C-alpha cells in the first residue's frame, strides 16, 4: 500500500464524485474536496439528502468514489484491494453509529473488545484494551453489564469506546446523538470533545446545526457539494 500524504494529514478527499447507476442516475457527490489534519475535530452538516451519508461511506472506505481520490492515513483507496480496505478499517478507522450496533447478550466489555477482532490480537489483550477504553468514557462500572440492559446514553458511550479502542487514526461518528434525548446528547458531545482534547481525530456527521457549530471546524454540505468549510465562521 502506498503512502503519499503528509504525516499530519489523516484524511484527504480530492475532487470526489459519486454517481449511482439508477434510472435516472443519482449524482450524490459533485466534486467534494477537503483535508482533515491529525487531532482535528470537524462537523459535517447539511439537510437530509445533501450527500452526508455517501461521504461518510467514502471516508470510511465502505464504498469507492466514481471519480476523484480518497486517502486515509496515507493510503489511496483506489490502490487498495477489498482485503486491504478491511485492514485499513481495522487499524485506522473507528465508527460510531446512531443506532449503536452493539450485540445483545454480550457484555459492554466484550462488545468493545470485538472492535479489535480483526487486528489479530489475542482475546486477553483485546479485553484489557477494552476495559481501559470503557474506563476512559465513564463506563468502568458497567463492564460486565449486558448491553440490552444499558440506557441509550450508556449504549452510545460503549459504542464510542468500541470506536476508540486500539487508537484509530480517525473516528467517524454518524449522527451520534440522533437516538438520544437532549441531556444524553449534550453528554455525548462533551465526551467527544474530551476525546478530541486528548488527541483523537474525530469527524461528526450531523443534521443538527447547533451541534455542528459547537465544533472548531464546520464543513457544510448542500446538493452534493461543500457549501462552506470554515475553521472560524459559524454556519447559519
Write the layout of secondary structure elements.
Elements: E1 9-20, E2 26-37, E3 41-45, H1 52-59, E4 67-72, E5 75-76, H2 82-92, E6 93-96, H3 108-113, H4 123-136, H5 152-164, E7 170-174, H6 182-197, E8 202-206, H7 209-213, E9 217-222, E10 225-230
Parallel strand pairs: 3-8, 3-9, 6-7, 7-8
Antiparallel strand pairs: 1-2, 1-4, 4-5, 9-10
List keywords for this structure.
236 residues; alpha/beta; Rossmann fold; six-stranded mixed β-sheet; four-stranded antiparallel β-sheet; 7 helices; 27% strand; globular; disordered N terminus
Strand order of the largest sheet: 6-7-8-3-9-10
Count of discrete domains = 1
As a percent range, the share of strand residues is 25-35%
CATH fold name = Rossmann fold
Gap between N and C termini: 41 Å
Helices and strands, in order, run as EEEHEEHEHHHEHEHEE
Helix-and-strand structural type: alpha/beta
CATH architecture: 3-Layer(aba) Sandwich
Total helical segments: 7
Largest sheet: 6 strands, mixed
State the name of the first-level CATH class. Answer: Alpha Beta
| CATH evolutionary superfamily | P-loop containing nucleotide triphosphate hydrolases
Global Rg: 17 Å
Shape: globular
Oligomeric state of the chains present here:
single chain
Helix content: 25-40%
Low-pLDDT stretches are 1-7
According to DSSP, the number of beta strands is 10
Q: How confident is the prediction overall: mean pLDDT? A: 92
Amino acid at each position: 500500500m502506498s503512502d503519499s500524504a503528509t504525516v499530519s494529514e489523516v484524511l484527504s478527499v480530492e475532487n470526489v464524485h459519486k454517481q449511482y447507476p439508477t434510472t435516472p442516475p443519482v449524482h450524490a457527490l459533485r466534486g467534494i474536496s477537503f483535508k482533515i489534519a491529525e487531532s482535528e475535530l470537524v462537523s459535517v452538516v447539511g439537510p437530509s439528502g445533501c450527500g452526508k451519508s455517501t461521504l461518510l461511506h467514502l471516508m470510511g472506505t465502505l464504498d469507492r468514489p466514481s471519480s476523484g481520490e480518497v486517502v486515509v492515513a496515507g493510503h489511496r483507496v483506489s490502490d487498495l484491494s477489498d482485503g486491504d480496505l478491511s485492514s485499513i478499517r481495522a487499524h485506522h478507522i473507528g465508527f460510531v453509529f446512531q443506532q449503536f450496533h452493539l450485540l445483545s447478550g454480550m457484555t459492554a466489555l466484550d462488545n468493545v473488545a470485538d472492535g479489535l477482532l480483526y487486528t489479530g490480537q489475542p482475546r486477553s489483550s483485546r479485553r484489557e484494551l477494552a476495559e481501559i477504553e470503557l474506563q476512559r468514557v465513564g463506563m468502568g462500572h458497567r463492564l460486565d453489564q449486558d448491553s440490552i440492559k444499558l440506557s441509550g446514553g450508556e449504549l452510545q458511550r460503549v459504542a464510542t469506546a468500541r470506536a476508540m479502542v486500539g487508537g484509530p487514526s480517525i473516528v467517524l461518528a454518524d449522527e451520534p446523538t440522533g437516538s438520544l434525548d437532549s441531556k444524553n446528547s449534550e453528554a455525548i458531545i462533551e465526551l467527544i470533545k474530551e476525546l478530541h482534547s486528548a488527541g483523537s481525530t474525530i469527524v461528526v456527521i450531523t443534521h443538527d446545526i447547533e451541534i455542528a457549530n459547537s465544533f472548531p471546524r464546520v464543513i457544510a454540505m448542500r446538493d452534493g457539494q461543500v457549501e462552506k468549510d470554515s475553521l472560524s465562521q459559524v454556519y447559519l
